[in-house]
Amino acid sequence: MVRSVGGKHSFSKPIILLLAFVALLGISLTRDFRSASSSPYISLASSWSRDKYRIVTANVSNNNDSPKVHSHVDVYNFSTDSWTESFEIPKDMANSHLGVATDGRYIYIVTGQYGPQCRGPTANTFVLDTETRKWESLPPLPAPRYAPATQLWKGRLHVIGGSKENRHTPGIDHWSLAVANGKALEKQWRTEVPIPRGGPHRACIAVDDHLYVIGGQEGDFMAKPGSPIFKCSRRFEVVYGDVYMLDEDMKWKGLPSMPKPNSHIECSWVIVNNSIVIVGGTTEKHPVTKRMILVGEVFRFDLNTLTWSVIGKMPYRAKTTLAGFWDGWLYFTSGQRDRGPDNPQPRKVVGDMWRTKLRLSH
After folding, report:
1. Are 170 and 222 in contact, with CB atoms under 8 Å apart?
2. pLDDT tens digits, 318-328
3. If we measure between CA atoms, which residue out of 149, 150, 155, 277 comes closest to residue 209?
4. Phi-psi region of 196 (alpha: psi -120 to 50; beta: other; left: phi over 0)
5. Under a CB-based contact definition with an 8 Å cutoff, are residues 328 and 320 in contact?
6. Are 163 and 145 in contact (CB under 8 A)?
């Protein structure tokens, strides 16, 4: 059943997401289409709380010869099903490949790429107070990274892996910073136990006493040598479906891998009924053409049984979706979609928003 997203929901306070999402249709799911976001986005970050979400920054391009980046925050209100406001980000904050985490009110933005194409990274770190709309700077990361796994866990902001300064070499570094109420409680980041396998574009989720890091890849596009615009040049990449859990003793443990290798899922997840739900992504390249292949499945990782399953299909394959869950609905928007039902290669950057009723048994 397909119908417009227009119903009004009652909720005592607003909720926040920094998003760029795409679409979903699957088993026990109902698809509802809503108006497109203010601009198409790809390679952004997301987080959510209460009844709003925000698209913070994004690397945007439907034409590799004339890419551009956004430098603002767009706010969507779940209650009214509408985009309500937009405001600027700090001028020295990264535009894409961000690390992002939230406690509900404060959104932490860590490192990332500054500018379009395959330009260099910045180690700058910021926090946004979503109630006052004010930005504050935090201590910079010890070294800049592209798309590191980032999450708040046990009173500390954890930043894990990502790609190193050349954009291709996977990092295994793990740093943390004590934070509270949007403030850093320390002047420097603390070195933590490195993750067994490095790389960018992974989901990072904190549940109770455990921190989960899911999927990702080794390698990424690099700037073409001598290019004045830092034009992206493809390099060898390995996409994987590895799952790692950091326990209360700060020891990493390997868990069952995803049903297929998956990357570009850093903000494509939600937690529902003690399960992690992941929407879309990218998987291993085509064995003959070596072209990127997008993912159209919706995956569930049951934390009670530590098992994976496929619970649905998207209307089209897409990567870098940004997802949120509110009032029984799974939302997502933007990202980069496929070329059509018979061609899983990436093509158009989209701004469409979708929602679906999500029911998961315990």
Report:
1. no
2. 999 988 888 89
3. 155
4. alpha
5. no
6. yes
Burial class (CB in 10 A: 0-12, 13-18, 19+), 6: exposed
Note whether 152 and 101 are within 8 A (CB).
yes
Residue 278 contacts residue 298 (beta carbons within 8 Å): yes
- CA–CA gap between residue 302 and residue 258 (Å, rounded): 12
Q: Give the chain's radius of gyration (CA, Å).
A: 19
CB-CB contact of 208 with 272 (8 Å): no
pLDDT digits (tens, 9 = 90+) for 180-233: 999 999 999 999 999 999 999 999 999 999 999 999 999 999 999 999 999 999
What pTM did the predictor assign?
Answer: 0.87
| SS3 readout for the chain | CEEECCCCCCCCCCECCCCCCCCCEECCEEEEEECCCCCCCCCECCCEEECEEEECCEEECCCCCCCEEECEEEEEECCCCEEEEEEECCCCCCCECCEEEECCCEEEEECCECCCCCCCECCCEEEEECCCCEEEEECCCCCCCECCEEEEECCEEEEECEECCCCCCECCCEEEEEEECCEECCCCCEECCCCCCCECCCEEEEECCEEEEEEEEECCCEECCCCCCCCEECCCCEEEEEEEEECCCCCEEEECCCCCCCECCCCCEEEECCEEEEEEEEECCCCCCCCCEEEEEEEEEECCCCEEEEEEECCCCEECCEEEEECCEEEEEEEEEEEECCEEEEEEEEEEEEEEEECCCC
Residues 136, 361: Cα–Cα separation, whole Å:
41
CA distances for 212 relative to 182, 203, 252, angstroms: 23, 8, 9
Instruction: Return the exposure string of 46-70: e unless at least 16 CB atoms fall within 10 Å of the residue's CB, then b.
Output: bbbbbbbbbbbbbbbbeeeeebbbb
Instruction: Provide the CB-side half-sphere exposure for 304 (13 A, CA).
Output: 7
Angle subtended at Cα 64 by Cα 72 and Cα 43, rounded to the nearest 5 degrees: 40
pLDDT digits 0-9 by tens, 42-55: 655 555 555 665 55
